[in-house]
Amino acid sequence: TEAEIRNVIKQDSISKEEIEKEKQQAAEFAAQQIPNHITLGLGSGTTSAYFVKAIQKRIVNEKLDIQCVATSLGTQKLAESLHMNMLDVNTIDEVDITVDGADSVDDKLNGIKGGGAALLFEKLVAKMSKKNIWIVDSTKYHKTLEGRQMPVEVIPFGGMGVFRYLRDNGYHPAFRFEDNGDILETDSGNYLINITIPKHADLKDLAKNLKNQTGVVEHGLFLNVCDELIIGGDQIKTIKRE
Ligand code: 5RP
C-alpha cells in the first residue's frame, strides 16, 4: 500500500552501518527460503556476497544438495573459495531460483542493476531462472525509477557513437571509470555508460530503444524480472510481483 511504501522510503537517511545491516538481514532471510535439490543463481555485489556466505553455511550445516551458477567472475571466485558446487552456465537449460541484489527498485518491482558492472551476466542468468528473488536495503526502494542512474553496456569499438546518441537524446551519459582513472571494463571487456532515466519515461520503450542501438550489448533496466523483493530491516518486508 501507499503507506507501506512511504514507510520504507522514509528510511532514506539511514547510516552506512544500518544499510550494511539491512543488506545482511535481507540476504540471510533469503538464504532461509531456499529449498533443497535446486540449481541456484548467485547474484553479484555486496548484498549478494552476504547471501553467498549465508547459503554456503546452510549447504554445509544441512548437507544440502544445491548446485550454483554465478553471475560474475567476482561471485564465481567467492563461491569457489567457499568450495561451493559451481556449474558452467552453458551446461544447463534453466536455473530454479536466482538471488541477486539491485541498485533501485520501484513499487512495481521494475529495477535497475549493474552498479557492480555485472548486468550482462546477471540478466542472462535471470532470464534462465524460474524465480528471481532480489535482496536490498531500504534505501534502494523507490516509488519510481525516474531520475535514477543506470548503466548501458557498449562494445568498445564504436562506443562513442552510442555515447553521442545518448547525449543528443537527453540521457546525460557518462562513461564509467575505475577509482584509479582507468575506464572500467566489464567481465566481457565492454564499457559502461551511465545514463539518467528521464522524467515520465516509458520504461518499456526506453528498454527497447536502448537494445535497438547498434553497439549496445545490454542495459541495466530489468523489467518483469523480479518475482519477489526482500527488503532488509528489523522487520523484513517481502513484496511479491502481482
Ligand atoms: C551488480 C548489481 C548489484 O546487484 C547491485 O549493484 C547492488 O549491489 P550492492 O548489493 O553492492 O548494493 O547489479 O551489477
Word description of this protein:
The two termini are 13 Å apart. 43% of the residues are buried. The protein has 7 helices and 13 strands. It has helices at 2-9, 16-33, 46-61, 73-81, 119-127, 159-168, 203-212; strands at 39-42, 67-70, 95-100, 104-105, 111-112, 129-136, 149-154, 174-175, 191-196, 216-219, 221-222, 228-231, 237-240. The chain is of the alpha/beta class and 242 residues long. Helix content is 33%, strand content 22%. The model has no long low-confidence stretch (mean pLDDT 95). The strands form 3 sheets. The protein has a 6-stranded mixed sheet, sandwiched between helices. Strands 8-9-7-10 form a 4-stranded antiparallel sheet, with helices on one face. Strands 4-5-11 form a 3-stranded antiparallel sheet, with no helix packed on it. Residues 43-48, 100-103, 113-119, 122 line the site of ribulose-5-phosphate.
Structural features:
4-stranded antiparallel β-sheet; 242 residues; 22% strand; single chain; 7 helices; Ribokinase; binds ribulose-5-phosphate; 6-stranded mixed β-sheet; 33% helix; alpha/beta
**Rg over alpha carbons:** 18 Å
User: Roughly how much helix do the residues carry, as a percent range?
Assistant: 25-40%
Average pLDDT score:
95
User: What composes the largest sheet?
Assistant: 6 strands, mixed
Family: Belongs to the carbohydrate kinase pfkB family.
Subcellular location: Cytoplasm
Subunit structure: Homodimer.
Function: Catalyzes the phosphorylation of ribose at O-5 in a reaction requiring ATP and magnesium. The resulting D-ribose-5-phosphate can then be used either for sythesis of nucleotides, histidine, and tryptophan, or as a component of the pentose phosphate pathway.
